[in-house]
Design goal:
The complex is a heterotrimer of chains A (143), B (264) and C (332). Chain A is mainly β. Chain A contains two helices and seven strands, in the order αβββαββββ. Chain A has a domain of 84 residues: Beta Barrel (OB fold (Dihydrolipoamide Acetyltransferase, E2P)), CATH 2.40.50.140. Chain A is globular and about 35 Å long. Chain B has two domains: 30 residues, no CATH class; 222 residues, no CATH class. Chain B has three helices and eleven strands. Chain C is globular, with a radius of gyration of 24 Å. Chain C has a six-stranded antiparallel β-sheet with strand order 3-11-10-9-8-7, with no helix packed on it. Chain C has a four-stranded antiparallel β-sheet with strand order 1-4-5-6, with no helix packed on it. Classes of the chains: A mainly beta (143), B alpha+beta (264), C alpha+beta (332).
Chain lengths: 143, 264, 332
C-alpha cells in the first residue's frame, strides 16, 4: 500500500495502521515538533467542542507551585459526538496525563500522542461503538 | 408555485382585511402543509440594530462616506426595547463601543438564530415531505428544522439545534444549544447559552411570510421579548440563491497583525 | 401448430402468475408527493474511506478485488475499527478516538475511468496552476493565506473533492422540494441547492466556489451538471486516500456531471465525471455505492470560527526559520 502522507510524523504515522492522515483538515508537521515530547500531568479546565479541532485545556502544576495552562489539540468533535459524548463527558477537574508534541512557535499548545486518566475514566460516554463482534450498546449518558 | 385563483384572491383579501390569523382559502401547500418554499429576505435594517435607530454615520468607516452608513429603522422589537438585565446592558454597550471588531459578522462567523433570518442576505426555505432545510446565502450557513426527531443538542453550537412542528398552519421552531458567540445585530445586542428562540413562520400569501421570534434568556433579559417582521419572497423569474462565502473577505482583517503580503 | 383454448388459457394463467411474482419481487422506486423520484435521506460516505481514489498499480485495469485480496484488507480495516474500543479498554485517548470506522474497500479504486483507475495527466497549464496553488501538505514554509488550500482556510472543500470520502464528517444528505434537490454536505456546512428542470445557465461572470448546478431526471436517475466554477479549488485533497500530494488545479471551464441512481431502499449508485479541458488531458469518473444511514447525525462543522491553523502554521513556520537562521549564524 502506498504511504502518501509521509509528511505527517509522530502521532499520525506511528499510530496508524492504515496509511492515511486522520488530521485531515491540515497536516501535522508544520505546526508541531515531532522530535520533542512534553509530558504534562494536570487537571482538565475545559473541553472546547470546536472545529476543525477540539481542544482540551489543562492546568499543569509547575515545580515552583504555580500552574500553567496548556491547550491540547484533539480531532474533530463529531466523532466523539457520534460515539455518545456530550458537554458533560470530560468534566473540569478530571486528572489527566498527556504525552504530546509541542508547537514549534513556543506556544503552550501541543498535539497529543496519548492521553491517559490516572483516576480511571470518570466521563460519561454512552452511545454505541463497533467492536469485532458488532455493535454494542452502552447505556445513555445521564443528562 | 400554485397560482392563487380568483376566488382564492378574494378570500385572501377578505381574510387579510378581517383578521390577522385568518388562513388564505387557497394557500399553496406542499405535502399537506403551507408551502414556505422560496427565496426569502427581510427588508429592514434590523441587522444594524433591532431597536429603533436614526440614520447615522459609522465613525470608524469614514473613508466609505455615504456608501457605508446606517439607514434609519423602526424597532422590530414588539416591546420597543430589549429588556436587558443591568450587567447584560453594560456588555451590550461594550460591544457597541468596540464595533466592528466585536461583531462576529465582521469575521464572517456563523450568524446564529434569529440573526440569520434578517442578515440582509437572502435565504432559501427547502420544504418537502421531511425535515425542512433553511439555506442562508451568508457564509453558506444552513440549518435543519427537525420535524420529527426532537432532541436536546449534546453540545452548544453557533446555530443551535432547531426542533420544528406545525401549529395549524404556522411553523413553530424552537432552537436551543447556542454557544452564544454569535450576536443579534451590529449594535452589540447579544445573548447567553441559556437562550431559547421560538420562531413562528406563517404564510400570509404566496409572497409574504409573517415572521416572529421570541427570545427567552433569564441570564441576559429580565423577561422574554419578541421581534416581528415580514419576510418577502424574491419574485424575479428564476430567482436563485447565490453564495456569499465571505471567509476570503475577512482574512486580511483577521491576519493583519501577521503582516501578510498584500495580494496584487 | 394447434393452439387449443386450454393451452392458451394455461399459458395466460402462467403469464399472470409469473408477472405477479415478478411484480412482488421488483423494487418500486419511491416518489415524492409531488411526483419526483425520491432520493431523500442521509447517505454518509464513511464506508468508502478505505477505498482509494486512485488504484494501486498492481491491480492494473481490474476494478474488483478477489476474495483473497479482500480477506487481506480485512485485518487492516478491523484493526482500524477496533481502535476506539481499545482506547476505552485501556483508559486512554489516542488516535482511536479521532478516526471513523469504515468498511472494507468497495473496489480497487473510486476512479472507474480512465480504465487504469488513475487520474489522467494534467496539461501544461494545469501543472503550472497546480504548482502555484496553496496547500499545507507539500511545503513547510508558510507566510500568507495563499500558502494554504481552500479547506485549510475553511472556505470550501471544492468539487468534486467535497463529495469524496474523508476521515470524518462524511455526512451527505439529500433533501427535496418541488423543483429542487439539495445535496447537503456536512463538511464544511455547504448545502448545494440544485434547481431542477429547464432553467437557463447563469451568466459566466458569476463564478462560485462550488459552481452553479442544474439538475434533471433521466428516468429515475438524478443528473446534476455544475459549471461556473471560480477555478480556485483543487479537484482532490490529500485526506482522501489515494489522492495526489499536490493540489490538482481546476479552471473556470471545469464542468462536473453527477448521477444519483437509487437502486434499492438503501442504495444509491453515485458517479461524478470531471471535465476540465484547460487543466487536464482527459476527463475522469468516480463511481461508488452509497449506503443509507438515517441515524447518522450531522454535527455543525463551524470550521472558520476556530481555525487556528492559518495563524499557528505561520507563527510556527517563522519560529522554525528563525531557529534555523540562529543555528546557522552560530556555526559561522
Amino acid at each position: 500500500m502506498l504511504k502518501r502522507a509521509t509528511a505527517c510524523a509522530g502521532l499520525l504515522v506511528t499510530a496508524l495502521m492504515l496509511p492515511w492522515a486522520a488530521q485531515a483538515h491540515h497536516s501535522f508537521a508544520a505546526e508541531f515538533d515531532a522530535s520533542k515530547v512534553v509530558h504534562l500531568e494536570g487537571t482538565v479546565v475545559k473541553f472546547a467542542w470546536v472545529n476543525p479541532h477540539s481542544w482540551i485545556y489543562i492546568n499543569v502544576p509547575k515545580a515552583d507551585g504555580t500552574t500553567e495552562e496548556w491547550k491540547i489539540e484533539g480531532g474533530a468533535p463529531s466523532l466523539l459526538l457520534r460515539r455518545g459524548w456530550n458537554r458533560n463527558s470530560l468534566p473540569p477537574g478530571t486528572k489527566i496525563v498527556v504525552d504530546a508534541f509541542p508547537a514549534r512557535d513556543g506556544d503552550k499548545r501541543a498535539s497529543p500522542r496519548s492521553i491517559t486518566f490516572p483516576d480511571g475514566r470518570k466521563m460519561d460516554i454512552g452511545g454505541s461503538y463497533q467492536n469485532q463482534e458488532g455493535k454494542k450498546d452502552e447505556p445513555a449518558p445521564p443528562k | 408555485m400554485r397560482r392563487i385563483s380568483g376566488n382564492g384572491l378574494l378570500a385572501l383579501v377578505l381574510s387579510l382585511a378581517c383578521s390577522t390569523t385568518a388562513v388564505a382559502a387557497d394557500m399553496p401547500r406542499v405535502a399537506g402543509k403551507p408551502n414556505l418554499n422560496g427565496i426569502w429576505q427581510a427588508m429592514n435594517s434590523a441587522n444594524w440594530n433591532l431597536e429603533a435607530h436614526s440614520a447615522q454615520k459609522v465613525p470608524s468607516q469614514w473613508q466609505l462616506g455615504a456608501l457605508f452608513a446606517i439607514p434609519a429603522g423602526q424597532s422590530v422589537v414588539v416591546e420597543g426595547k430589549i429588556p436587558y438585565l443591568p450587567e447584560a446592558l453594560e456588555v451590550r454597550d461594550k460591544y457597541r463601543e468596540e464595533w466592528p471588531k466585536s461583531d462576529p459578522e465582521t469575521a464572517c462567523y456563523l450568524p446564529g438564530i434569529p440573526r440569520a433570518t434578517y442578515m440582509g442576505h437572502p435565504f432559501q426555505i427547502v420544504q418537502g415531505n421531511r425535515d425542512i432545510l433553511m439555506v442562508y446565502s451568508y457564509a453558506t450557513s444552513n440549518r435543519t428544522i427537525f420535524m420529527k426527531d426532537h432532541q436536546e443538542p449534546p453540545v452548544d453550537t453557533w446555530m443551535g439545534r432547531s426542533n420544528g412542528r406545525w401549529d395549524g398552519d404556522t411553523l413553530v421552531v424552537e432552537t436551543t444549544g447556542f454557544n452564544a458567540r454569535a450576536h443579534l445585530d451590529r449594535a452589540g445586542n447579544h445573548f447567553s447559552s441559556a437562550l431559547k428562540v421560538t420562531e413562528r413562520f406563517r404564510l400570509e400569501n404566496a409572497n409574504v411570510i409573517r415572521y416572529e421570534a421570541t427570545l427567552e434568556d433569564p441570564e441576559t433579559y429580565s423577561k422574554p421579548w419578541t421581534i416581528r417582521m415580514p419576510l418577502y419572497k424574491h419574485a424575479e423569474p428564476n430567482a436563485e440563491l447565490l453564495d456569499y462565502k465571505c471567509v476570503p473577505f475577512a482574512e486580511e482583517m483577521l491576519y493583519k497583525d501577521l503582516e501578510l503580503p498584500r495580494k496584487k | 401448430m394447434n393452439v387449443t383454448f386450454k393451452s392458451l388459457a394455461a399459458s395466460a394463467l402462467a403469464g399472470l402468475v409469473l408477472s405477479g411474482v415478478a411484480a412482488a419481487a421488483a423494487w418500486k422506486h419511491p416518489k415524492t408527493p409531488w411526483g419526483d423520484p425520491d432520493l431523500q435521506g442521509t447517505w454518509p460516505i464513511s464506508h468508502l474511506m478505505a477505498t482509494p481514489l486512485q488504484r494501486p498499480t498492481q491491480y492494473g485495469e481490474r476494478l474488483n478485488f478477489t476474495a483473497e485480496e479482500l480477506e487481506q484488507q480485512k485485518k487492516a480495516v478491523e484493526a482500524q475499527n477496533k481502535r476506539y474500543s481499545e482506547d476505552l479498554a485501556q483508559n486512554r485517548i489516542t488516535l482511536g478516538h479521532w478516526v471513523e470506522e469504515t468498511d472494507l474497500p468497495a473496489q480497487t479504486s473510486l476512479i472507474v475511468d480512465p480504465p487504469n483507475g488513475q487520474l489522467p495527466p494534467q496539461t501544461e497549464a494545469g501543472k503550472k496552476q497546480s504548482a502555484a496553488m496553496g496547500s499545507d501538505w507539500n511545503r513547510d514554509v508558510f507566510d500568507t493565506v495563499a500558502d494554504f488550500g481552500t479547506w485549510n482556510r475553511c472556505i470550501t472543500r471544492g468539487l468534486p473533492n467535497g463529495m469524496l470520502p474523508n476521515p470524518y464528517n462524511n455526512g451527505i444528505q439529500i433533501v427535496q422540494a418541488p423543483g429542487y434537490v439539495v445535496i447537503n454536505m456536512e463538511m464544511v456546512h455547504e448545502a448545494r441547492v440544485v434547481p431542477l428542470g429547464k432553467r437557463p445557465a447563469l451568466d459566466g461572470e458569476i463564478k462560485q466556489w462550488l459552481g452553479v448546478s442544474r439538475g434533471h431526471f433521466e428516468g429515475n436517475t438524478l443528473v446534476v451538471e455544475t459549471t461556473n466554477f471560480n477555478g480556485e479549488t483543487s479537484m482532490t485533497d490529500v485526506p482522501t486516500r489515494g489522492s495526489p500530494r499536490d493540489p490538482r488545479a481546476s479552471s473556470t471551464e471545469m464542468k462536473i456531471v453527477e448521477r444519483f441512481e437509487r437502486t434499492s431502499d438503501d442504495r444509491i449508485t453515485y458517479s461524478v465525471t470531471v471535465n476540465d479541458p484547460v487543466t487536464q488531458t482527459a476527463s475522469w469518473t468516480v463511481r461508488a455505492p452509497w449506503k443509507r444511514d438515517d441515524n447518522y447525525q450531522f454535527f455543525e462543522y463551524a470550521c472558520h470560527e476556530d481555525n487556528g491553523a492559518i495563524r499557528n502554521f505561520i507563527t510556527s513556520s517563522r519560529a522554525k526559520r528563525a531557529q534555523e537562521a540562529a543555528a546557522a549564524a552560530q556555526k559561522k
